[in-house]
Amino acid sequence: EVQLVESGGGLVQPGGSLRLSCAASGFTFSSYWMSWVRQAPGKGLEWVANIKQDGSEKYYVDSVKGRFTISRDNAKNSLYLQMNSLRAEDTAVYYCARGDDYGDLSPFDYWGQGTLVTVSS
Amino acid sequence: DIQMTQSPSTLSASVGDRVTITCRASQSISSWLAWYQQKPGKAPKLLIYKASSLESGVPSRFSGSGSGTEFTLTISSLQPDDFATYYCQQYNSYPDTFGQGTKVEIK
């Protein structure tokens, strides 16, 4: 059974940093593109970033470029999102989502349960 | 960025009704469109990909159609488990973008 389990969310002050993790199981993690998608409270879905199977390609939505870094450790079946210079508008539930095993742009067939990040003083 | 616009934003319907949700893209996305269902406090669930392909395990009452800039999600006979919010997503070009959502409520 495919499972994605996020952790690392919490309350952080504006300008602060947080590192999210996503533990994957039930599939060959190293074969898939992986993404982070977020959802602000009561709002819609926003794709944040994705990363290629070997970590050699990474893409970001403009609003997080230069502040967030996506990475992965295939030996640990884990996906990460390092978030720096956090702003109030980054407050959201962050989901880890599985993409394709061949192309970068794809639907997301499995999602984690999400981890809440709250940026507030 | 490609803008995705869903209509209506809210839909009131009864069990057994046929329901149609529309998603329009600001430019052509071929058939690179997915539909998701989300219930409160839960992660989205993939229903349809490539505009009309049914994800494994999804009931056949869900169907998708369209190409280019106009797409529809149809639920042929609404069931109690279908009351939720539905989102479309384009994956034709970066950044992936989602519609604002359509909430299907009980009439």
Structure write-up:
The complex is a heterodimer of chains A (about 120) and B (about 110). Chain A has strands at about 5, 10, 20-25, 35-40, 45-50, 60, 70-75, 80-85, 90-100, 110, 115-120. With about 120 residues, chain A is an all-beta fold. Chain A is globular. Chain B has about 110 residues and is mostly beta strands. Chain B is about 0% helix and about 50% strand. Chain B contains no helices and eleven strands. Chain B has strands at about 5, 10-15, 20-25, 35-40, 45-50, 55, 60-65, 70-75, 85-90, 95-100, 100-105. In chain B, strands 2, 4, 5, 6, 9, 10 and 11 form a seven-stranded mixed beta sheet that branches. In chain B, strands 1-3-8-7 form a four-stranded antiparallel beta sheet, with no helix packed on it. The radius of gyration of chain B is 13 Å and the shape is globular. The chains are: A mainly beta (about 120), B mainly beta (about 110).
Summarize the model shown.
By secondary structure, chain A is mostly beta strands.
Q: Secondary-structure element order of chain A, as H and E?
A: EEEEEEEEEEE
What best-fitting shape of chain B do the alpha-carbon axes yield? globular
Q: Which regions of chain A have little confidence, pLDDT < 50, spanning 5+ residues?
A: none
H/E series of chain B? EEEEEEEEEEE
The mean pLDDT of chain B is: 97
Q: Tell how many strands the DSSP assignment of chain B holds.
A: 11
Roughly how many Å apart are the termini of chain B? Answer: 35 Å
- Uncertain residue ranges of chain B: none
Share in helix of chain A: under 10%
Helix content range of chain B: under 10%
Rg over CA atoms of chain B: 13 Å
Rg result of chain A:
13 Å
Number of strands of chain A: 11
Morphology of chain A: globular
Largest interface: A-B, 18 and 23 residues
Helix tally of chain A? 0
Terminal-residue CA separation of chain A:
40 Å
| Strand residue percentage of chain B | over 45%
Chain oligomer state: heterodimer
| Beta-strand share of residues of chain A | over 45%
